[in-house]
Amino acid sequence: MLAFGHSHPNAMKNLPLNPRKVPRQARSRATCDAILAAAARILERQGDEALNTNRVAEVAGVSIGSLYQYYPTKEAILAELIRAMRQQMHDDMAAAARVAAGSGLEQEVDALVAATLRHHLRNPELAYALEIVEERLPLDAETAALKQGMRTLVVDMLERNGITDAPAIAFDLIAIGHGLADAAIAAGERDFDGLHRRIRRAVLGYLGRPRL
Question: What pTM does this model have?
């Protein structure tokens, strides 16, 4: 779910996309969790056109006033869903990199590809819907930070395995992996093993270590 380099309408650039406040008490955290879960459910089942703050509050079982205490706009709710999904993707990749570190290039590639693909397939309909939404939200600075964090994980893997020009190669590998995953999932593919083999083959082939 990586929509890089989009332009955004001026009206979108001026929308508040951050929560009004951070929930600190258990009850307020539960309210925010319910709001985000409701928005995700609506987005996944009915699409962005069906999502508005009144509908989210209704599905979440909270008052519209409670919703507005935390989220000033529908777009702020969507942005928070995107942030959560991005963070989960980075955390999945970081955990896989830690476990596989030192096991050799092919095994480390396998681990990172599997972690990325599990992220994409955990909830593919929601991920795809958020990718479409992300194209119109001005989150470019946050996207750049995410890209850098992911690239650092891949650079570290490449350097551990003696590969030179690691930053440029990491950029290409991320583009290959996410491009293949996004295209396949958008086309309705859900076969983890088949997609994993294809992405792994493309990545290792790029690195000059083809493996079927």
Answer: 0.83
